Amino acid sequence: MEPNFDAPDYSLQIEKKIRDGALLFHCRGGFSLVNYALLDGIFEQIKATPERKVVLDLAGIRFMDSVGLGTIAAILKHTMATDKDFVLVSNDIVDQNLSAASMTRVMRIVRSLEEALASFAP
Question: 65 burial class (0-12, 13-18, 19+ CB within 10 angstroms)?
Fold first, then answer.
C-alpha cells in the first residue's frame, strides 16, 4: 500500500510557554480525537494555571474534529466561569469548524499571536 502524502497530519505538537503574563499553547497538526489525551492535558493545565490570560494558538492546525471543538468549548466555558481572559488564534480550517458549530460569536478570535497578546486589556 502506498502512503498518502496528501492526508492530514493527525499528530499534535504542543509548545507551552508564558509570555507577557499570558499562558500560551502553540499547537500544530491535528486537534482531534486521535489526540484526546493531549487535548485534555491542555484543558487541565488551563484549569490549574494562576495566569488570568490564556491564548490557544491554533494557527498551525491542519485538521480538527468535534473533539477538538469540544475542547475549545470546555476551555471557553471554564475561562468565562473563572473570569480568565481567553483568546483563540485561528486559521481557515479552525474558522470553518468554529463557524459550523456557531462558536464564532461567543469568543475572541484573532489571526496572530501578536494580535492576541495586544487584545488583552492593560
Answer: middle
